[in-house]
Amino acid sequence: VSQVANLTLVSSACDMASTAYASTKESHPYIRSVCDAAEKGVKSVIKATTSSVQPVLTTLEPHVAVASEYASKGLDKLGEKLPLLQKPVEQIISDTKELMSSRVADAKDAVSS
After folding, report:
1. pTM for this one?
2. Fewer CB near the last or first residue (10 Å), C or N of the chain?
3. pLDDT band (50, 70, 90) for residue 12
4. Which Pfam families does the entry mention (predicted)?
5. Domain span at residue 95?
């Protein structure tokens, strides 16, 4: 999970979502109260389930370690094949706009000639 979270694309998307969430909460008092209540609910559910899940996780730890190692190798290969994962969302959006603009300009030129 931490390896996925450290991918530039994922971390920049999370940063954007977090910023949008905080901005929305700050701008709209009614949404803030709903979000605060939801956050408290999630925190209490996490607290309640952590103690009951811990013994299961301890039992499964060797299996989780093997699965984690395979997942890590798979993510490394995916990162090699998809360099897009190493770019921030803003750059991907900018590159896409630039590409689309170029394609539209090419199409306009083709139609006019």
Report:
1. 0.65
2. C
3. very high
4. Perilipin (PF03036)
5. 86-112
Give the whole-angstrom CA distance, residue 38 versus residue 44: 10
Q: Are residues 61 and 102 in the same domain?
A: no
Shared-domain flag, residues 108 and 66? no
* Of the candidates 11, 2, 4, the residue with the CA atom closest to the CA atom of residue 75: 4
**Structure confidence at residue 44 as a pLDDT band (50, 70, 90):** very high
Which is nearest to 20 in space by CA: 12, 42, 4?
12
Asked whether residue 28 falls in the same domain as residue 74, the answer is yes
- Give Cα separations from 91 to 16, 55, 82, 88 (angstroms): 13, 43, 15, 5
